[in-house]
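Title: Comparing notes on inverse folding

I've been comparing how different people in this forum approach sequence design from structure. To keep things fair, I'm posting one structure and asking everyone to reply with a full sequence. Here's the target:
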Protein backbone atom coordinates (compact mmCIF):
# COMPACT_ATOMS: atom_id res chain seq x y z
CA UNK A 1 0.00 0.00 0.00
CA UNK A 2 1.38 3.40 -0.97
CA UNK A 3 0.46 6.53 0.97
CA UNK A 4 0.97 9.89 -0.66
CA UNK A 5 3.94 11.60 0.98
CA UNK A 6 4.75 9.33 3.93
CA UNK A 7 5.74 10.66 7.35
CA UNK A 8 9.51 10.35 7.79
CA UNK A 9 11.05 11.01 11.22
CA UNK A 10 14.42 12.76 11.19
CA UNK A 11 16.47 12.93 14.42
CA UNK A 12 18.95 15.81 14.10
CA UNK A 13 21.98 13.83 15.32
CA UNK A 14 24.79 15.35 17.35
CA UNK A 15 23.96 19.05 17.85
CA UNK A 16 27.67 19.90 17.73
CA UNK A 17 27.96 18.43 14.23
CA UNK A 18 26.44 19.16 10.84
CA UNK A 19 23.22 17.20 11.44
CA UNK A 20 20.97 20.17 12.23
CA UNK A 21 22.29 22.07 9.19
CA UNK A 22 21.76 19.29 6.66
CA UNK A 23 18.30 18.64 8.10
CA UNK A 24 17.40 22.29 7.60
CA UNK A 25 18.68 22.24 4.02
CA UNK A 26 16.92 18.96 3.22
CA UNK A 27 13.55 20.06 4.58
CA UNK A 28 13.81 23.24 2.49
CA UNK A 29 14.56 21.27 -0.68
CA UNK A 30 11.81 21.02 -3.32
CA UNK A 31 12.45 17.30 -3.94
CA UNK A 32 11.89 16.44 -0.29
CA UNK A 33 8.80 18.61 -0.05
CA UNK A 34 7.35 16.66 -2.98
CA UNK A 35 8.45 13.30 -1.53
CA UNK A 36 7.80 13.18 2.21
CA UNK A 37 6.24 14.83 5.23
CA UNK A 38 9.23 15.38 7.48
CA UNK A 39 8.94 15.21 11.25
CA UNK A 40 12.16 16.52 12.79
CA UNK A 41 13.13 15.48 16.32
CA UNK A 42 15.59 17.77 18.06
CA UNK A 43 15.99 20.92 20.12
CA UNK A 44 14.26 24.19 19.29
CA UNK A 45 17.24 26.44 19.98
CA UNK A 46 19.57 24.23 17.97
CA UNK A 47 17.23 24.18 14.98
CA UNK A 48 16.57 27.92 15.14
CA UNK A 49 20.31 28.41 14.92
CA UNK A 50 20.68 25.89 12.09
CA UNK A 51 18.01 27.65 10.06
CA UNK A 52 19.86 30.92 10.58
CA UNK A 53 23.24 29.42 9.67
CA UNK A 54 21.91 27.81 6.48
CA UNK A 55 19.76 30.80 5.52
CA UNK A 56 16.89 28.49 4.62
CA UNK A 57 14.22 30.88 5.97
CA UNK A 58 12.12 28.02 7.30
CA UNK A 59 9.35 28.68 9.79
CA UNK A 60 9.81 26.48 12.83
CA UNK A 61 6.55 24.83 13.89
CA UNK A 62 6.65 23.03 17.25
CA UNK A 63 4.46 19.93 17.48
CA UNK A 64 3.75 17.15 19.96
CA UNK A 65 2.11 14.81 17.46
CA UNK A 66 2.77 14.25 13.76
CA UNK A 67 -0.82 15.15 12.92
CA UNK A 68 -0.25 18.66 14.29
CA UNK A 69 2.26 19.44 11.59
CA UNK A 70 1.93 22.09 8.89
CA UNK A 71 3.17 20.20 5.84
CA UNK A 72 3.46 23.15 3.56
CA UNK A 73 6.43 24.61 1.75
CA UNK A 74 8.59 26.70 4.07
CA UNK A 75 7.74 24.96 7.36
CA UNK A 76 9.93 22.73 9.53
CA UNK A 77 7.84 20.64 11.92
CA UNK A 78 9.81 19.92 15.08
CA UNK A 79 9.20 17.73 18.10
CA UNK A 80 11.26 19.69 20.63
CA UNK A 81 12.91 17.57 23.31
CA UNK A 82 14.44 20.72 24.85
CA UNK A 83 17.55 18.86 25.98
CA UNK A 84 20.41 21.21 25.04
CA UNK A 85 21.81 24.07 27.10
CA UNK A 86 22.58 26.24 24.10
CA UNK A 87 24.94 28.45 26.10
CA UNK A 88 27.21 25.42 26.53
CA UNK A 89 27.03 24.14 22.97
CA UNK A 90 30.35 24.22 21.12
CA UNK A 91 30.43 23.23 17.47
CA UNK A 92 32.99 20.60 16.57
CA UNK A 93 33.58 19.44 20.15
CA UNK A 94 32.98 16.07 21.77
CA UNK A 95 30.26 16.59 24.37
CA UNK A 96 28.41 14.27 26.71
CA UNK A 97 25.44 16.65 26.61
CA UNK A 98 25.27 16.33 22.83
CA UNK A 99 25.82 12.58 22.85
CA UNK A 100 22.97 12.04 25.29
CA UNK A 101 20.72 14.41 23.35
CA UNK A 102 21.47 12.63 20.07
CA UNK A 103 20.50 9.32 21.63
CA UNK A 104 17.24 10.80 22.90
CA UNK A 105 16.37 12.08 19.41
CA UNK A 106 16.97 8.62 17.97
CA UNK A 107 14.92 6.93 20.68
CA UNK A 108 11.98 9.25 20.08
CA UNK A 109 12.15 8.54 16.35
CA UNK A 110 12.14 4.80 17.00
CA UNK A 111 9.18 5.18 19.39
CA UNK A 112 7.22 7.00 16.68
CA UNK A 113 8.03 4.34 14.09
CA UNK A 114 7.23 1.43 16.41
CA UNK A 115 3.89 3.08 17.18
CA UNK A 116 3.23 3.42 13.41
CA UNK A 117 2.98 7.19 13.68
CA UNK A 118 5.70 7.60 11.04
CA UNK A 119 6.53 5.35 8.11
CA UNK A 120 10.30 5.43 8.44
CA UNK A 121 13.30 7.08 10.06
CA UNK A 122 16.13 8.85 8.21
CA UNK A 123 19.06 9.41 10.55
CA UNK A 124 21.83 11.99 10.69
CA UNK A 125 25.42 11.70 11.99
CA UNK A 126 26.27 10.98 15.61
CA UNK A 127 29.64 10.87 17.34
CA UNK A 128 30.80 7.70 19.14
CA UNK A 129 32.97 9.63 21.61
CA UNK A 130 30.09 11.94 22.50
CA UNK A 131 27.80 8.96 23.08
CA UNK A 132 30.36 7.51 25.47
CA UNK A 133 30.82 10.85 27.22
CA UNK A 134 27.05 11.00 27.67
CA UNK A 135 27.05 7.53 29.30
CA UNK A 136 25.22 5.99 26.34
CA UNK A 137 26.44 2.41 26.06
CA UNK A 138 26.08 1.97 22.32
CA UNK A 139 28.75 2.48 19.68
CA UNK A 140 26.43 3.59 16.90
CA UNK A 141 23.05 3.79 15.23
CA UNK A 142 22.80 0.13 14.24
CA UNK A 143 23.32 -1.05 17.79
CA UNK A 144 20.79 1.47 19.14
CA UNK A 145 18.16 0.48 16.61
CA UNK A 146 18.81 -3.21 17.21
CA UNK A 147 18.39 -2.88 20.96
CA UNK A 148 15.34 -0.60 20.92
CA UNK A 149 13.50 -2.70 18.33
CA UNK A 150 14.51 -6.04 19.88
CA UNK A 151 16.32 -7.01 16.68
CA UNK A 152 19.27 -9.37 17.01
CA UNK A 153 22.15 -8.62 14.62
CA UNK A 154 20.49 -6.10 12.26
CA UNK A 155 21.77 -6.18 8.69
CA UNK A 156 23.48 -3.28 6.94
CA UNK A 157 22.59 -2.61 3.31
CA UNK A 158 24.14 0.14 1.20
CA UNK A 159 22.31 1.46 -1.82
CA UNK A 160 23.78 3.81 -4.40
CA UNK A 161 22.26 4.18 -7.87
CA UNK A 162 21.50 0.58 -9.00
CA UNK A 163 23.97 -1.06 -6.63
CA UNK A 164 22.98 -2.76 -3.37
CA UNK A 165 25.61 -4.16 -1.02
CA UNK A 166 25.17 -6.18 2.19
CA UNK A 167 27.99 -6.86 4.65
CA UNK A 168 28.95 -10.16 6.24
CA UNK A 169 30.81 -8.26 8.98
CA UNK A 170 31.07 -4.62 10.01
CA UNK A 171 33.27 -3.10 12.71
CA UNK A 172 35.85 -5.80 13.35
CA UNK A 173 39.52 -6.05 12.39
CA UNK A 174 40.36 -7.33 8.93
CA UNK A 175 41.96 -10.41 10.49
CA UNK A 176 38.77 -11.20 12.42
CA UNK A 177 36.63 -10.44 9.36
CA UNK A 178 38.50 -13.17 7.47
CA UNK A 179 37.86 -15.58 10.33
CA UNK A 180 34.12 -14.81 10.08
CA UNK A 181 33.93 -16.06 6.50
CA UNK A 182 32.32 -19.36 7.40
CA UNK A 183 29.80 -21.49 5.52
CA UNK A 184 27.06 -21.38 8.12
CA UNK A 185 27.42 -17.61 8.61
CA UNK A 186 27.24 -16.99 4.87
CA UNK A 187 24.12 -19.14 4.54
CA UNK A 188 22.43 -17.39 7.44
CA UNK A 189 23.24 -13.95 6.07
CA UNK A 190 22.12 -14.74 2.53
CA UNK A 191 18.76 -15.99 3.74
CA UNK A 192 18.21 -12.93 5.93
CA UNK A 193 19.45 -10.54 3.25
CA UNK A 194 17.01 -11.97 0.73
CA UNK A 195 14.17 -11.44 3.22
CA UNK A 196 15.23 -7.80 3.54
CA UNK A 197 15.19 -7.41 -0.24
CA UNK A 198 11.71 -8.91 -0.42
CA UNK A 199 10.45 -6.43 2.18
CA UNK A 200 11.95 -3.63 0.10
CA UNK A 201 10.06 -4.94 -2.92
CA UNK A 202 13.08 -6.52 -4.64
CA UNK A 203 12.03 -10.09 -5.44
CA UNK A 204 13.60 -10.66 -8.86
CA UNK A 205 17.23 -11.38 -9.62
CA UNK A 206 20.20 -13.11 -8.04
CA UNK A 207 22.43 -12.22 -5.11
CA UNK A 208 26.17 -12.44 -5.71
CA UNK A 209 28.74 -13.41 -3.09
CA UNK A 210 31.99 -11.47 -3.43
CA UNK A 211 35.28 -13.33 -3.31
CA UNK A 212 37.53 -12.76 -0.34
CA UNK A 213 40.94 -13.35 -1.90
CA UNK A 214 42.30 -11.94 -5.19
CA UNK A 215 40.45 -13.65 -8.08
CA UNK A 216 38.52 -15.60 -5.44
CA UNK A 217 41.69 -17.49 -4.55
CA UNK A 218 42.11 -19.20 -7.95
CA UNK A 219 40.78 -22.50 -6.56
CA UNK A 220 43.07 -22.42 -3.55
CA UNK A 221 46.28 -21.19 -5.16
CA UNK A 222 46.32 -18.18 -2.84
CA UNK A 223 43.78 -18.52 -0.10
CA UNK A 224 41.36 -21.36 0.53
CA UNK A 225 38.38 -19.57 2.13
CA UNK A 226 36.45 -19.70 -1.13
CA UNK A 227 37.04 -23.43 -1.58
CA UNK A 228 36.38 -24.41 2.03
CA UNK A 229 33.62 -21.97 3.02
CA UNK A 230 32.11 -19.84 0.27
CA UNK A 231 31.61 -22.40 -2.49
CA UNK A 232 30.01 -25.01 -0.19
CA UNK A 233 27.68 -22.32 1.18
CA UNK A 234 26.60 -21.27 -2.30
CA UNK A 235 26.10 -24.86 -3.40
CA UNK A 236 23.90 -25.68 -0.40
CA UNK A 237 21.91 -22.47 -0.83
CA UNK A 238 21.24 -23.33 -4.47
CA UNK A 239 20.12 -26.81 -3.50
CA UNK A 240 17.69 -25.20 -1.06
CA UNK A 241 16.26 -23.04 -3.85
CA UNK A 242 17.93 -19.68 -3.22
CA UNK A 243 19.02 -17.49 -6.12
CA UNK A 244 22.66 -16.91 -5.31
CA UNK A 245 25.96 -17.10 -7.19
CA UNK A 246 29.58 -16.91 -6.17
CA UNK A 247 32.22 -16.45 -5.22
CA UNK A 248 32.77 -13.74 -7.83
CA UNK A 249 35.96 -11.71 -7.80
CA UNK A 250 35.58 -8.49 -5.85
CA UNK A 251 37.31 -6.58 -8.64
CA UNK A 252 34.31 -7.16 -10.92
CA UNK A 253 31.27 -8.20 -8.89
CA UNK A 254 30.25 -4.67 -7.84
CA UNK A 255 30.45 -3.40 -11.42
CA UNK A 256 28.35 -6.34 -12.62
CA UNK A 257 25.73 -5.65 -9.95
CA UNK A 258 25.66 -1.96 -10.86
CA UNK A 259 24.93 -2.98 -14.45
CA UNK A 260 22.03 -5.16 -13.35
CA UNK A 261 23.56 -8.64 -13.55
CA UNK A 262 22.81 -9.11 -9.83
CA UNK A 263 20.21 -7.56 -7.54
CA UNK A 264 22.72 -7.29 -4.69
CA UNK A 265 26.17 -8.28 -3.47
CA UNK A 266 27.20 -9.79 -0.15
CA UNK A 267 30.50 -8.09 0.71
CA UNK A 268 32.66 -10.29 2.90
CA UNK A 269 34.10 -7.45 4.98
CA UNK A 270 33.47 -3.80 5.79
CA UNK A 271 35.84 -1.91 3.50
CA UNK A 272 35.36 -4.20 0.52
CA UNK A 273 31.82 -2.91 0.01
CA UNK A 274 32.39 0.58 1.38
CA UNK A 275 35.12 1.31 -1.13
CA UNK A 276 32.99 0.08 -4.03
CA UNK A 277 29.92 2.12 -3.13
CA UNK A 278 31.59 5.31 -1.98
CA UNK A 279 33.91 5.46 -4.96
CA UNK A 280 30.87 5.25 -7.20
CA UNK A 281 29.10 8.14 -5.48
CA UNK A 282 30.13 9.10 -1.96
CA UNK A 283 27.29 11.51 -1.20
CA UNK A 284 24.52 9.27 -2.52
CA UNK A 285 25.64 6.10 -0.75
CA UNK A 286 22.81 5.47 1.70
CA UNK A 287 22.72 2.97 4.55
CA UNK A 288 19.57 0.92 5.18
CA UNK A 289 19.29 -1.14 8.34
CA UNK A 290 17.56 -4.40 7.52
CA UNK A 291 15.82 -7.11 9.47
CA UNK A 292 13.96 -4.73 11.80
CA UNK A 293 10.21 -4.15 12.18
CA UNK A 294 10.73 -0.52 11.13
CA UNK A 295 12.48 1.18 8.22
CA UNK A 296 15.67 3.12 8.85
CA UNK A 297 17.84 4.86 6.29
CA UNK A 298 20.86 7.02 6.99
CA UNK A 299 23.49 9.26 5.53
CA UNK A 300 26.81 7.46 5.48
CA UNK A 301 29.09 10.27 6.54
CA UNK A 302 30.17 11.61 9.89
CA UNK A 303 29.48 14.68 12.00
CA UNK A 304 32.09 16.72 10.10
CA UNK A 305 33.11 18.60 13.24
CA UNK A 306 35.63 20.61 11.19
CA UNK A 307 32.89 22.47 9.28
CA UNK A 308 30.03 22.32 11.80
CA UNK A 309 28.38 25.68 12.31
CA UNK A 310 29.62 27.15 9.03
CA UNK A 311 26.68 26.27 6.80
CA UNK A 312 29.05 24.63 4.29
CA UNK A 313 27.83 21.04 4.76
CA UNK A 314 26.22 19.43 1.72
CA UNK A 315 22.71 18.09 2.20
CA UNK A 316 22.85 15.74 -0.81
CA UNK A 317 23.21 12.62 1.34
CA UNK A 318 20.45 13.71 3.73
CA UNK A 319 18.11 14.37 0.84
CA UNK A 320 18.92 10.96 -0.60
CA UNK A 321 18.35 9.22 2.75
CA UNK A 322 14.88 10.75 3.03
CA UNK A 323 14.11 9.91 -0.59
CA UNK A 324 15.15 6.27 -0.13
CA UNK A 325 12.99 6.02 3.01
CA UNK A 326 10.03 7.34 1.05
CA UNK A 327 10.81 4.85 -1.74
CA UNK A 328 10.82 1.76 0.46
CA UNK A 329 8.25 2.50 3.15
CA UNK A 330 5.35 0.51 1.59
CA UNK A 331 6.94 -2.76 2.75
CA UNK A 332 6.67 -1.55 6.36
CA UNK A 333 3.09 -0.29 6.35
CA UNK A 334 0.88 -2.29 8.72
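Reply #1:
Here's my take.
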Amino acid sequence: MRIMKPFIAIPIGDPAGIGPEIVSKAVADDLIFDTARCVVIGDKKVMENAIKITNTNLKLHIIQDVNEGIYEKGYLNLIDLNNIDFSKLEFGKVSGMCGKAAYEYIKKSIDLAMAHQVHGVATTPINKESLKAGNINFIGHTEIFGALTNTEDPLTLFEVHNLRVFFLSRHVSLRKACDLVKKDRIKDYVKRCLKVLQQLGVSEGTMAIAGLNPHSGEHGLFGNEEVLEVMPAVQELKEEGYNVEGPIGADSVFYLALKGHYNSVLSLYHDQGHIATKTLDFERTISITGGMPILRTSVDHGTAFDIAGTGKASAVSMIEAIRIAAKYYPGFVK
